[in-house]
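[Automated response] Your request has been received and processed.

Submitted sequence:
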Amino acid sequence: MKQSRQKHSATFKAKVALAAIKGDRTVGELAGEYGVHPSQIHAWKKALLDGAAGVFENGSDRDDKTNE
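Generated structure:
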């Protein structure tokens, strides 16, 4: 029987990626706890770190428009 792919929410991905960034547990431990593959955790962590600067860039644009 074919197993269907899991679809994780953005909130779940962020939660796991933030736990990986903290560094208090290994990726292997997190993978066992959350039930995802360690390489998937690395991918989510990389995506979070790569996109983190965009949060502040978009926020400053919003503040400028609000102040006008």
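Summary generated for your ticket: The chain is about 75% helix and 0% strand. The mean pLDDT is 87.
If you did not submit this request, please reply to this message.
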